[in-house]
Amino acid sequence: MKEFALFPGCLIPERVPSYEVSLRQTAEKLDVNFAEPEGEWTCCAPVGILSLDYLTSLSVGARNLAVVEEMGLDTMCTPCNGCFEGLDRIARILNQEPETLAKVNEILAEVDKEYKGTVQVRHLAEIYFDDVGVDKIKETMVKPLDALQVGIRPGCHLFRPIEVIGIDFSERHFFLDDLIEATGAESVYYQHRLRCCGGLLRNVSDDLTEGMLRERLKELKEAEVDCLVTVCPLCFLQFDLGQKLVERKYKEKYDIPTLTYSELLGLGMGMSADELGLATHRIKLDKVLAKIGVD
Length: 295
Fold this sequence. Notes:
By secondary structure, the protein is an alpha/beta fold.
């Protein structure tokens, strides 16, 4: 398989370390080859920077794209929805607007960088589905997960804005369902599973974000899932740490464990909870691990 430049972003290494641990642990078994630069990545240039200065936002993101070109690669892989949406947007703009690219390169020249406009940005979930494929995933499963009923949480920025990102999805069934079922687990449909969890509103309006999260938790509880699986680190934090805040605020109990997809893969590959770093989760996974016979 071709080599991908791995861009973990800021949130995952700092706040969701088990996501990074598990994707690295499982990559070799899936024949996914990740490369990383000798120097440092910089921030992906999220919406906060875009709202302050358009050209600065493009330049911050373009520095990372230039680093990928310096590595001799043409594809960046990121497991973070926010990084994916931001860097994909920047790459598309610069690949399609030569005049804007020229202005950005004037700024990049100050740090001895130049972006030529050759890099494609892809989400890790895309690579799991399109490059690895469900058949390969099925081949790597050694621990039966068929006892698990799973609710998926794709996260908003994996698909939106649809006219820009262009990844096909459906309210009823789409490729993340196929990825879940490739592990042997059942992907359970539940109401409003594609609606926002409110993560980006935290510290802006905590009442609103916790109200939105509470609605999503109620829907999952009604669906009687064993756990939630997500490919978005911000969704993970909402349903893991944020769930505790909702339970405390509303004096309710949900106890819905949350996993990233790469953690689910690792469990299916026979890896232990310690190998995958699952002790960092706030909502303990004891019930899930017991159901599939993992220590």
